[in-house]
């Protein structure tokens, strides 16, 4: 019957590949069946349902949780660790994706451009307040063609936003004031060996800014000109900010409106956002050393889940050990990038 249907479609003008794709089969599979004596579907298929397959209730629970107001705006990779932190394990990320695909509940944002450039000198952080990265991004202002400027400083070890400002202009004086405030807020003193990485913009390399960093005892590090990937960590948080649900698609109504929105974003990012580079813990938890008990508790949930349904686990449970050192612009293939 299948071969007859394919032949009928080909006779009507379709290619064999198109006809096979319409019924979900490879054209090579159909060609192989045509050479067999029986000349028909040779698939056997499973005779029984695996004993460890998801139950209808578990599948319904996956859909229920994934579409709930609490979790519907976050990815599955964020959702599953959050459930583990709440003491619940339903299924793995891949199972969540499989069920959501089957229910046609998957939607994707535009893909990010993959990194493709080499890096400048590497800087490694073994703890907080050792290597910071900062940059400026544009926020649309109410007058067409004008912008507000978000200055943002990030600790690369914990990904915590240690300081930010929104202003109507770019200037080295404003950048210098932010550097002073960040050091005061984080208790950084001269001689602590802090490194501050940035790109090559005017506010970053201006005389006032460089004099301030020298006074504070902060070592400078710069990206190569016109290579944004040399400051990829800041570029990543700016992308997170602008793809955050609720980010206005229209210009901000005022400077105060922009500042309020960024303040809410930073509070969410530091305290609630489960960062993929941190084994899905919040930056503030990593910054304050609270990530270890969180990850230990999460590991215990996974071990208990494996004990309940061992046949669903072909390998060890997921690695929830805390991450170690973090390197900004690491070396590649043994060469300084």
Tell me about this structure:
The chain has three domains: 2-35, no CATH class; 55-108 and 291-313, no CATH class; 123-273, Ribonuclease H-like superfamily/Ribonuclease H (Nucleotidyltransferase, domain 5). It has a five-stranded mixed β-sheet, with helices on both faces. Strands 1-7 form a two-stranded antiparallel sheet. The chain is 41% helix and 12% strand. The chain is of the alpha/beta class. It has helices at residues 2-11, 16-22, 27-35, 56-66, 76-85, 93-102, 172-186, 202-205, 207-216, 232-242, 255-271, 283-287, 291-308, and strands at residues 123-125, 131-140, 147-155, 161-167, 195-198, 219-222, 326-328. Helix 7 (172-186) packs parallel to helix 9. The mean pLDDT is 88.
Keywords:
Nucleotidyltransferase, domain 5; two-stranded antiparallel ribbon; alpha/beta; 5-stranded mixed sheet; 41% helix; 3 domains; 337 residues
Quick recap of the structure?
The chain has helices spanning 2-11, 16-22, 27-35, 56-66, 76-85, 93-102, 172-186, 202-205, 207-216, 232-242, 255-271, 283-287, 291-308; strands spanning 123-125, 131-140, 147-155, 161-167, 195-198, 219-222, 326-328.
Based on secondary structure, the structural category is alpha/beta
Largest sheet: number of strands, sense, barrel closure: 5 strands, mixed
C-alpha termini separation? 60 Å
Number of individual domains: 3
State the helical fraction. 40-55%
Number of helices: 13
Radius of gyration: 26 Å
Strand order of the largest sheet: 4-3-2-5-6
Indicate the CATH architecture of the largest domain: 2-Layer Sandwich
CATH C-level class of the largest domain is Alpha Beta
Q: Count the beta strands.
A: 7
Strand content: 5-15%
* SSE ordering: HHHHHHEEEEHEHHEHHHHE
Q: Give the CATH topology of the largest domain.
A: Nucleotidyltransferase, domain 5
Q: Which geometry do the CA atoms define?
A: elongated
Estimate the mean pLDDT confidence. 88
According to CATH, the homologous superfamily of the largest domain is Ribonuclease H-like superfamily/Ribonuclease H
